[in-house]
Structure formats: structure tokens, C-alpha cells
Design a protein that fits this description.
The structure is a homodimer.
Chain A lengths: L2 E3 L3 H4 L4 H10 L7 E5 L4 E9 L6 E9 L7 E6 L5 H14 L3 E6 L11 H13 L7 E2 L3 E2 H7 L4 E5 L8 E2 H4 L6 E6 L7 H9 L3 E4 L7 H19 L1
Parallel strand pairs in A: 1-2, 5-6, 5-11, 6-7, 6-8, 9-11, 9-12, 10-12
Antiparallel strand pairs in A: 2-3, 3-4
């Protein structure tokens, strides 16, 4: 199944130009054919193409179906962007595939990257959402400071993952309680969070955690943390 | 900590040329300095450099330390290689980081790639082993046929992951028993395993499994499967 992404499909009844080009030029869909469209907000539409102009393709909606997320815990990962953008892009693709609600690029003490353009990351998330047959687009926020994130989160369970062995912590897999309706996990840069950051987070109610005995790259840690939440949630079912 | 890889360090007392160049040209290590060397077989050596010739660096071993794997279950993933080699390379890096014993490229009915060069994958595994501070190099075997793999494996628990919803299966997270001393998971190509392959595997004692509700790319499925084994193992500790 191929899904086209049109965030305003319901009000505008047109495909964005890039999607229209793919639909009509590449896949040679014609007026009268039926296509599947998602809005990134949890709905899938079965649409009949009414104009196969690749610049201004219009549709009429035949059916609208709510396709809720397959997981119930709202998962946010706040992660210090890696120096190498390929690794960030890979991370966004993989988090979207396994299922995430929100990604916050985190500006912290030892961040290797202090600025980040999120447009390209958002396009990767769109592509991964379509490919993995989801209907909800993860939110990718602009970069936020560490302090802003730890002071403002209202997640039910909050964790900070770090490597520093001198500050006690337990495994995320053992600490996470699947009753949580929302969870936030902070993942630090290659140089780890500073001791002050770890201490502020703990004071702000974050549980200190480890992701196991392996030294993981930032993007691997983010994937592993999100995967852990899904796997522990599966066990309670 | 920087680890150098020299599989024959104990018998030859020299660094391979690529490692010697990095050690001496890039990091400017000199005769008399102490470096850490791993052999990929579970040992770390503290070595004193006795000749800082970048083509033929020699060492004397000061200490030899056994560094066992941090996990006890022997994990094998047999996976149909993706068409795009970047995705395979990414997969090898990530599986090595989170911990795997053996990767078998699998030739199956709907494989998109019927041949694979494993040299480059092995170099990526070496690099990820060093980076993640492991001392054991995962084995990457030449490509094997589906039938050969399912007939010859002696793993204690064996699983086949597939998407076909018409053949009943349960979640890996719920089916895997952490008492296993060895586990093998088959991961299919983008076009899935054929019904005949699934049926032969089940007859050969493989448990049919799903990795959850998401449609995952091959390389993501392999990572997720290996991650699931580690997370369930963590819970029993």
C-alpha cells in the first residue's frame, strides 16, 4: 500500500505538489483512480482523483478512517543532536518507524551541535511515517535548552540516561512502569551530560537511568530507549 | 579510552598496519607509551610500544585481562540483506553496539540481494566493537541459504519473524524465555518470507513471531529483535 501525505487534505482537497508529482508522474495515477491519503494527524482517507494535473491534483474524499496509534503511552525523546547529521537523520527515521510521539533536539553543556535545521528531519519523519504505514507524524520541535526542557515537562514518568558511573542509576527496563500515559527520556551528547545537568534533572523529578552495559552512540541510545518503552508495554498486554 | 584491534597481538606482538598508522601518525603515540589493544576474542591487553614505526609497530604485553561479554545468551540474527548496502552497514554497526554474537546474511525466496561482500561489513563491525569498548568481534558469516540455516542451527530457542498476518504468531517479547543460552532469529527481506519458508521453519522447530504492530524495514526489524532479547534478559537480572 502506498500512502500519500497531505496535512490539509480534508479542508483543501488537493495534494501538495511533491506528492502530486509522485502520484501522477511516477505512479501514473489518473483521474478516477482511488488513492490512500494520510493527514499526519491520525486519519486515513480513501480519495478519488478528480484532476490529475501534477501541479494541482485535486481529489474527492470517499471515506475517512481514524487510525489510532498502536501504542498508548505518549513517548518523547529529548536528545542532544550528533555532530554528524546523517546519524540524526537515521535516528529520526528509526524512531518514527518503531513509534515515537515527539523528538526534542536538546541543547546541553557538552552538545557538539548548538544549532539544527529541522526541516530536513521533518521530511525524513514524513517519509518514514508513510513507509511504515502510520498516520500520525511525530512532532520535531526546534532546539530547546536543557533547563527549559527539564523545567517545563509534564510527562508522567521522566528519565535521564547518562554514562557517568559515579552517580547511581538503574536500568530503564527495570524502572519504567508501563502504566505511564506519558514518558520523557533525556539522551545526552557523546560527551555525556554534565554532573550539574544530571543533578538538576534528578532534583526536577527525573529518574536516573542506564541503558545497559554497552557504551552506545547518542542515536543508538535514543533508539534503544524508545524501543525499551515499547517492549515493556508489550509485556503488560 | 581508545582501543586498538590486533587479532594476533598475543602471538605476533605487532599492530596491523592500519591500526599502527592511526596510533602513531594520527595519535602520535611514541615508543615507551602504553596503549590498550583488544584481540576481538574477549581479551584486552595493556601494551607498551617498543617500536613506533607506523608500518611495523611492535609492542610488549604488560597485562592481559579477560573481558567477558556483558550478556550471556548467544545471539544470532540471520537476515536477508537489503538492496541498499548503507542499510546493511548501519545494521551491522548498530547490532555490534547493542551486542550480538553472529550475523548470517540469509538468501531466501524473495531476497533483493543474492550476493554480498562481507569484508566491508566486517570492517564496520571492528570499528563499532572498538567504539563501543567491546573486546569480542561479532562473527559475520558468508551468505547462507534459508534451508541450510534452518536445518543446521542448534540454537536453544529459534524464531522466525514475518509480516504475513494469515499465519498465526505471537510477540517475540512474550515468547522469548530468558533462560535460553542461545537464540537465533530469522528476519526476512522487504517482500517477507514466502509461505513455504515460514511453514518449513515452523516444521523445523522455529517459533513464529511478530515484532509488534509496526511495519519495520528489514534492518530495523533486526535491530529491534536483538534489542528485545537484551531487554528481556535485563528484566530477569
Amino acid at each position: 500500500m502506498i500512502q500519500f501525505y497531505a496535512p490539509d487534505i480534508e479542508s483543501e482537497l488537493t495534494l501538495p505538489e511533491e506528492e502530486a508529482r509522485h502520484c501522477i508522474k511516477v505512479l501514473r495515477t489518473r483521474s478516477g483512480d482511488v488513492i490512500e491519503v494520510i493527514d499526519g494527524k491520525g486519519y486515513r482517507f480513501s480519495c478519488r482523483l478528480t484532476d490529475d494535473n501534477p501541479r494541482h491534483a485535486t481529489v474527492e474524499i470517499e471515506t475517512k478512517t481514524a487510525v489510532p496509534l498502536s501504542w498508548s503511552t505518549k513517548i518523547t525523546v529529548a536528545v542532544a543532536p550528533t555532530k554528524n547529521m546523517d546519524r540524526m537523520e537515521w535516528m529520526v527515521e528509526k524512531l518514527t518507524e518503531i513509534g515515537i510521539n515527539r523528538i526534542i533536539p536538546l541543547h546541553c553543556r557538552y552538545s557538539e551541535r548548538k544549532e539544527i535545521k529541522i526541516d530536513r528531519l521533518q521530511r525524513i519523519a514524513v517519509s518514514a511515517m508513510k513507509q511504515s504505514l502510520k498516520t500520525v507524524l511525530p512532532e520535531i520541535t526546534p532546539m530547546r535548552s536543557f533547563n527549559e526542557v527539564i523545567q517545563s515537562s509534564d510527562a508522567e514518568q521522566k528519565f535521564i540516561a547518562y554514562c557517568d558511573p559515579s552517580i547511581p542509576r538503574k536500568l530503564l527496563s527495570c524502572e519504567y512502569r508501563p502504566v505511564a500515559d506519558s514518558v520523557l527520556i533525556l539522551i545526552g551528547p557523546e560527551g555525556d551530560f554534565s554532573k550539574e545537568e544530571i543533578s538538576s534533572a534528578i532534583t526536577a523529578g527525573y529518574m536516573p537511568i542506564s541503558l545497559g552495559e554497552n557504551r552506545l552512540r547518542t542515536e543508538t541510545a535514543a533508539f534503544n530507549a524508545c524501543d525499551t518503552i515499547h517492549i515493556i508495554n508489550q509485556l503488560k498486554q
